[in-house]
Amino acid sequence: MFLTVMILCLAYYVLMIGYTGTVVSFSGFWLVIGAISGLIHVGLRGFGREALIQKVTLPVVVSFWTTVGLVAVLAVIVGVSVISGMFARSDPKDLDYVIVLGTRVDGDEPSNSLKYRLDKAIEYLEEDQDLLVIVSGGQSKGADLTEAYAMTSYLIDAGISPERITLENMAMSTRENLIFSDKAIKDPEARVGVITNSFHVYRAMALADKLGFDNYTGIAAPSDKLLLPNDLVREFFAIIKEKILGYL
Known about the structure:
Elements: H1 2-20, H2 28-47, H3 49-55, H4 58-86, E1 97-101, E2 105-106, E3 109-110, H5 112-127, E4 132-136, H6 147-157, E5 165-168, H7 174-183, E6 192-197, H8 201-211, E7 216-221, H9 228-244
Parallel strand pairs: 1-4, 1-6, 4-5, 6-7
Antiparallel strand pairs: 2-3
Helix pairs in contact: 1-2, 2-3, 4-9, 7-8
């Protein structure tokens, strides 16, 4: 079993790198799990399962299964919340603004995940010519420019007038995306749609609610299917972290 887990984790890591051409955020998780699984496999083969079990003390066994149980419970709770956001189908009308939350840029091109968000924004912008868009995202590691600038270029190439686009190019987290973008909205009564990939909708809206942005509505764009397992794992840890920090 552990050998299979190791192979699957390492294969998925290699597949991600081959697919994106760059190191994806949180992809190291699969290397760590693969390495741990490999070490356990080697230990079982080297010492023998029975001999290794005899060397493990009761407190270690109790601690291990307690940790596994807690992680499993958290995974279920967080997973249900994330999935509820993924399958929420909102189609808000009469919006004044849409905010496109930034994510990875490969060189100077939006990643597939970011293109999904932008394409969803274009749908709304083409349908409502009075709608304004805020593109939010700073410059991440490995990118040649800010996420906001890459998004602006993509929208202009799609025929969206530059006068309708506001750049917010300082944010380095989802929470900052929302805070900095909200400052660019002068009307406190404006109705705002927040566009992000489906796996990210729950956290984005939970952060918005915590910040008191009651007039914000989540809009789910498709998620990159190949990267979705990695995105879901990263989202799990991000939610736990922001809950601890008091952001959720």
